[in-house]
Amino acid sequence: MSNLALTKQLPVKPKKARAEMAQIIGFLILLLVTVAMIMPLWFMLSTSLKTTKEMLAYPPSFIPDHFAWGNFKELFINTDIKFGRQYMNSLIVGVATVIGTVFSSSFVAFGFARYRAKGSTFFFMLVLSTLMLPYPAIMIPQFLLFTKLGLHDSLLPLILPSFFASAYMIFLLKQFFTTLPNELYDAGRIDGCREIRLYWSLTLPLSGPVLATVAIFSFIWSWNDLLAPVLYLDSQENFTLPIGMAAMLSSKFRIAPWNLMMAASLLSVLPIVVLFAIAQRRFVQGIVLTGIK
Amino acid sequence: MKSTRESRREGRLFYFFISPWLIGFIVFALFPVLASLYYSFTEYDIIHTPEFIGFGNYTELFKDDQFWNSIKVTLKYTFISVPLTLFLSLIFAILINQKIPFRGLFRTAMYFPSMISGVSMALLWFWVFNPQAGLFNYFLSFFGVGTINWFLDENYAMWALIIMSFWGLGGGMLIFLAGLQGIPAHLLEAAKLDGAGRLRTFWNVTLPLLSPVFLFQLIIGLIDSFQVFTQAYTITQGGPNYSTWFYVYNIYINAFKNFRYGYASAMAWILLIAVTIITFIIMKLSNRYVYYEGGRER
Amino acid sequence: MSKKTGKFMLSLTLVFGLVATACSSGGGSGSKDGETVTITHYTIDSPDRTFVEKLIPDFEAKHPGIKIKVTKAPYEQFDSKLQSSIAAKNAPDVTSHWGYGGFMEYYNKGMLMDMTPYLDGFKASDYNIPDDVMNIYKVDGKTYGIPLNSYVTVMLYNKDLFDAAGLQYPPTDYEDKSWTFDKMVDYAKKMTVDSKDLAKAQYGVDFGFGERDQRPQYFGADVYSADTWTNGGKPSEINLTKPEVVEAYKKIYGLIWDQKVSPTPAFSKSVSGQFGDPFLSGKIGMSVVGSWSLAASSNFNFKVGVAAVPQGPNEKVRSVLYVDPLFILKDSKHPKEALEWIKYLITTEVQEKSIELSGGNPPVNQKAAEKYYSNFEGIDPAQIKQVFEGAYKYGFESYNHLISNYSQINELFINELATVENGDKKVEEVLPSIEDKLKKLLERVNK
Hints:
The structure holds three protein chains of three kinds.
Chain A: H1 2-9, H2 14-48, H3 52-56, H4 70-77, H5 83-114, H6 120-130, H7 135-148, H8 156-159, H9 167-177, H10 182-190, H11 195-206, H12 208-224, H13 227-232, H14 241-247, H15 258-278, H16 280-290
Helix pairs in contact in A: 2-15, 4-15, 5-9, 5-12, 12-16, 15-16
Chain B: H1 4-39, E1 42-43, E2 51-52, H2 56-63, H3 65-96, H4 103-115, H5 118-128, H6 135-141, H7 157-166, H8 170-181, H9 185-193, H10 198-225, H11 230-236, H12 247-257, H13 261-289
Antiparallel strand pairs in B: 1-2
Helix pairs in contact in B: 1-13, 3-7, 3-8, 3-10, 3-12, 4-8, 5-11, 8-10, 9-10, 10-13, 12-13
Chain C: H1 3-23, E1 37-44, H2 47-50, H3 56-62, E2 66-73, H4 78-87, E3 94-95, H5 103-108, H6 131-134, E4 138-139, E5 142-143, E6 146-151, E7 153-158, H7 159-165, H8 181-191, E8 203-207, H9 243-257, H10 265-272, E9 284-290, H11 292-295, E10 304-307, E11 319-328, H12 335-345, H13 348-358, H14 366-373, H15 381-393, E12 395-397, H16 399-402, H17 406-421, H18 427-445
Helix pairs in contact in C: 13-14, 17-18
Family (chain A): Belongs to the binding-protein-dependent transport system permease family.
Main location (chain A): membrane
Subcellular location (chain A): Cell membrane
């Protein structure tokens, strides 16, 4: 930034001036785009604090006349919405998925990173091939399986698969585990560690940051997932947040409660924002490594 | 050299550690893929036993308007939204990578909206596109544009979804940004010394170095947009007049609303084949056009 | 109570039930079979349905050998949960067609039990159920459902908007032939305010007579051939391109686009969401709608009146009836006990009690109906009675109960007619293609 100030004083070469011009235009474009990106967010926030009457008024107001904080309370006390219960369900599924994914995927990745065996390349290729396997292509037999087991309308079908490792996360963790020096393990073996201890007490403690990335992203996936919950969950008490919120658009309300829906959206984004605030770097790293947005 | 006993022990350990994945792979991937192939040759409503009908589902599919329409809808969305999103996120990444004030702030502000995904985003944009009380039409009214019904109008619903998809380009932008920052400074310096202008440097140095990132994003973008469901389920229910009747939504309706699991399985298999082919084609093309540092792969 | 604890409790009651009945044979009357049977009652998760839970203690006290368990799901998920529980061999005993699908759909899938063998000594007249209502759920003389509630189509009107426009309230007497469709449109014109501001805009009438394929019936035109009602709900012919049907649809959608007295879908959805009823927002003068909307009338923030559906071109049909029955599912292991529960629910006493507990469900039991008519604050019971009786007289059962695979058919109509409702296309442009697609659909599902 000091650079910019410097060049401003010396408008010597036309080339430099052109570069500077480009930068200013770039800055203005970014400013415009940023405003455009932020506006809907602002609309969300302000709608969540409007009364029903103000919410329908034209033109829309940008700051509510008086803040209807009651909207947030309404979410939790209105028995047609059951927001609190659904929030809890989403948390249960999210946390269980994180635990399942972190432990199972690191366990498997450890196997892939540390040991060679006949077929180990083949199996790793198999892992990679499932990276692109679309869920809709396999959801029907999965659904039929869980339904025949009587697990329909429970949270288990959403949680169970995560305990059998995720291809993305195996890939991510394996890349990291192979960077850990072999000497470390040799030393461990000399100390008489059994292999499972090498995984548990040596590898895991060294992998905090990567594990955090895995945890954050498996949480976000599970938190935002709509399709699987839509297939499995039928009663309102068992809904996770995404279906619960989508259901607020349906039947039961006289006037579509946009203000409540915006309040619900805000609260549902909250855990993600908190994660972002405390682990911004993990976030960015995770996105860059996995391409998951 | 390892002894055979040692390597046998290592083999056992390998299979011990990968066993959770192996079980999961068989139960949650391999079995479903094969099972849905089987179901795709049957008529199955979950209550009665599956009835084998050979290629019946497939021949019906090829005559089904709704099936072709869902492909058309999905491809339309894909071919407009994916390239534009990629292009825009690259542009913004380049802009943010300049020496301009408040870079960190811009980056966060651009990225932040992409965290609001799924149903929250769908609801927000449904509201933003509300014909009467929404933000978007109000904004357009300053330019003299009359009321557009967006999600309620078959000519605009798809465009509303595409505009909405731009809102999530922050993630892609971050990836490009990381790619840009990962370009070794000495390469850019060298280009400058050779007298290359900014544009030429970008074209001849930056872009080739970014191509793996580009490819990666393209694959993920394509596969994601083949699987659009949340928007159709939450906002449009595939309408108006089937204009947002996405492929996966079609599978969902046929399987879980019309209870035609066999018919839907046939569609699921076609999706699987399409995704496999596209991934394969892009990988093949990439061998020819994508530059990997340190020489081409293979 | 979660599913698991539910199962646990169930096995507990089974175990202790044996012990308890063995020990307590001295006290109490009732069954001494030595076994407790649990009947599952599956219903929609909304207060006007789940109130049955409050009836259980009384029923169980009167029938010591039977326990009732209620399971529920929201409307949108109703069918999927039902199918899944049947697939998991976990089907409920008693339910109704409360989801998208109707009676004929369940019947053709073979989901329903023929109750006839258990109905020895059952007389509809003992429960004050009219014979023609009882016959709706008979096929080839076999009974597959016993009516529970009977909804009709009524006209609701917003008294505040009528007063503001200085209009006379519409009549409740179906024999008052001066109350016609054209007069309704006249009234509607006087109440319509066209405005961009959602808070100010209002419309005269929302004409929600049945589902989209039934609406022409009001104008004396039938979309389906007459054999549909006798052959298990499978139309042999579709009449969507017949001039009278086209004219009927022109009239219906002319309310929005020619007369401009009805709300556009954009307006309705902006105000009430994707599935809501815009009348409840207080911005609609008159609404032709199912009588379930009446149940919520105490919560309206405006004064509501009820009137006869105006006289249209069809002399015989002016109201769509929605008779909800109770079914016993085929896999039920205790049809006898399930039937006891159903019979309990249609007794005069329980039907009367249900009116208040449900917030105003119209009983099928005509003796209890007297009490129903006086259940609505601010509306004269005599008026409601008149409207209901007129509706029964000029009523036709809703297509969704009578036609096979109705949810797919309805989906087709909703999507294809959206262009007309949005004003993008004319009725006559769209109907031929609907007829085409509908024929293909029927050919497939009814093969």
